Amino acid sequence: MAVAQQAPINFAVMYATHDAFRRDLERLAAAVAAGRAGTPQVRAGWENFKRQLHVHHTVEDAVLWPRVAQQVTDRPDDQKLLAEMEAEHAQLDAVLAAVDAGLSQASADLVERVDRLAQSLGSHMRHEENAALPLIQDVLTHKDWDAFRSAMAKKQGPKGAAVYIPWVMDGRDVAERKRFLECMPAPVKVLNKLFWESSYQKRGLFSA
Question: Is the pLDDT at 1 greater than 80, yes or no?
Answer without folding.
Answer: no
